[in-house]
Specification:
Length: 325
């Protein structure tokens, strides 16, 4: 008999204790986060107001890899929830003197951390940390290697829901480096859990995963065929830092074959939205006319990232509180 692996991110009530991956989560876990995120957005102004939910909680952001959007929106989210926030500067930390990751963590725990938000270039780093922290400490994965970026996928789902209401009805195309992108892995998981009608991935064979059927996606090597009639287009960048060898003749060649241009956008539905998790590389995977065009919701994704990250953090602390009762 094959036993399923225990999901270490769930507590005894089956609720989120950590947020490490979307794999193994249920429709209700995702919709709860999306619904809670909505409550943080003022319906009249669209502002995200400060609330007093996490007064006295200490959240530490440990970013071992560069970030603009994720780190900053996590920090804003934590402050809007009234938590105490620490951004550990890895470059000036004692990890540079040879201190191990676990010793660093245990010292931060001794400073009474309640939650770690972790970005790391090693796949599995957030899981490793979650296995070694004290039982009352929570871990959120802010991107690990090419494994997962679950809060990015959730803010993407929130953005889609804002524009398209029911994900169930949608055809979604993801274009670019499917093989090396942690964002794409998490997006495919989120779209599958939320039962999107069709998930397409578009790109060259060298940037495709070896098991597309297992992922439940339809593969297209021709961008015009892949975009035909879709409701949502997600563009992702070439993850050059994760390629072991040159998998493309050149960036120019990639743009010629797979770059999202105004002309190619016409193959999608007229009201299709264009998304990108960022950072964007203009003239490589996307043309500026599209990135800055009317159908682009790229900067909205960034703003919604605040509300969605607030929702993930608050849900985890609320679940812990409920368990104590
Ligand atoms: N989308 C994303 O993860 O961007 P950053 O690397 O800037 O955080």
């Amino acid at each position: 008999m094959r036993l399923s692996k225990p999901n270490i991110q769930l507590n005894a009530q089956g609720k989120l204790h950590h947020f490490l991956t979307l794999e193994g989560l249920k429709h209700t876990h995702l919709t709860e986060i999306l619904d809670v995120a909505q409550t943080f957005i003022d319906p009249a102004t669209g502002e995200i107001n400060k609330v007093d939910s996490l007064h006295g909680k200490a959240i530490m952001n440990l970013f071992f890899e560069p970030s603009t959007r994720t780190l900053t929106t996590f920090e804003i989210a934590e402050k809007r929830l009234s938590a105490d926030v620490v951004n550990l500067n890895i470059e000036t930390s004692s990890t540079k003197k040879g201190e191990t990751l676990l010793d660093t963590l245990w010292n931060l725990e001794a400073m009474l951390a309640d939650m770690f938000v972790v970005r790391h270039n090693e796949s599995g780093a957030a899981h490793f940390i979650a296995k070694h922290v004290a039982p009352q400490v929570h871990v959120i994965n802010a991107g690990d290697g090419q494994h997962a970026h679950p809060t990015q996928a959730m803010l993407d789902m929130f953005t889609i829901r804002k524009h398209k209401k029911d994900i169930f009805d949608l055809k979604v195309a993801i274009i670019g480096d499917i093989q090396h992108s942690r964002v794409v892995r998490s997006q495919i998981q989120a779209l599958s859990i939320l039962e999107a009608r069709e998930i397409r991935v578009i790109g060259p064979t060298t940037l495709m995963p070896s098991n597309p059927d297992a992922l439940g996606v339809h593969v297209y090597h021709d961008i015009e065929q892949g975009l035909d009639g879709v409701d949502v287009i997600i563009n992702v960048r070439l993850q050059n830092e994760r390629m072991q060898s040159a998998l493309l003749p050149s960036e120019k060649e990639f743009f010629n074959l797979y770059g999202l241009t105004k002309e190619r956008l016409k193959f999608a539905k007229a009201d299709a939205i264009v998304m990108h998790p960022g950072p964007i590389n203009r003239g490589v995977e996307i043309d500026s006319e599209v990135a800055d065009g009317e159908q682009s919701v790229i900067l909205e994704q960034v703003t919604y990232g605040i509300a969605v990250r607030m929702a993930v953090i608050k849900t985890i602390f609320d679940n812990a509180q409920a368990l104590k009762k």
